[in-house]
Amino acid sequence: MTFETLFAASHVYIGNTIWYLVVFAILMLLVKHYAWGPVSDMMEKRRQKVIEDLDSAESNRKKAEILANEREAALKNSRQEATQILSDAKTNAQKIGSQIVADANNDAASIREKAEADAKKAKADAINDARREVADISVAIAEKIIAKNLSAEDQKDLVDQFIKGLND
């Protein structure tokens, strides 16, 4: 192998190498312009979206914590209100119960008083009826006994005195 053949063989290879380098450079420029730019833009957009999603997730987590705290406070308040309502209901029930018992006692007392008044009136009526009957019977007996011994005017005076004695 001579130097010329070696040079000629290496020249072909150098020419091909330069050609390949030029084609590779052109291809790299085309890839950079048509593929690498859009891919880089897409990657940048994706990176921005991930950052926004992380920020949004953090914001939502904070909002969720705030809402959970508000709900906890509302639940605590509603428990206190329920306890207060139950306490008020018990107090009102006791007051109403006491009032019902007092009203029932008052009603019973008035019924008792009315019954006693009715009993006294009935007793007075019975006594008056008994007096009249006794007076009638006494007069009838006295008439039979005295009719033989007294005159009509004496009988009248006797009956008047007897009736006067019953009224006193």
Question: What does this protein look like?
Answer:
It is a single chain. The chain has 168 residues and is mainly α. It has one domain. It has helices at residues 3-146, 152-167. Helix 1 (3-146) runs antiparallel to helix 2 (152-167). The longest helix has 144 residues, at 3-146. The mean pLDDT is 82.
List keywords for this structure.
mainly alpha
CA(first)-CA(last) distance: 181 Å
How many domain regions?
1
Q: Report Rg.
A: 65 Å
Q: H/E series, N to C?
A: HH
- Class derived from helix and strand content: mainly alpha
How helix-rich are the residues, as a percent range? over 70%
Indicate the proportion of strand residues: under 5%
Shape: rod-shaped
pLDDT average, as an integer?
82
Which runs of at least 5 residues are low in confidence (pLDDT < 50)? none
- Number of helix segments? 2
The quaternary organization reads as: single chain
Major sheet characteristics: none
Count of strand segments: 0
InterPro entries: ATP_synth_b/b'su_bac/chlpt (IPR002146), ATP_synth_F0_bsu_bac (IPR005864), ATP_synthase_B_chain (IPR050059)
Pfam families: ATP-synt_B
Subcellular location: Cell membrane; Endomembrane system
Membrane topology: Single-pass membrane protein
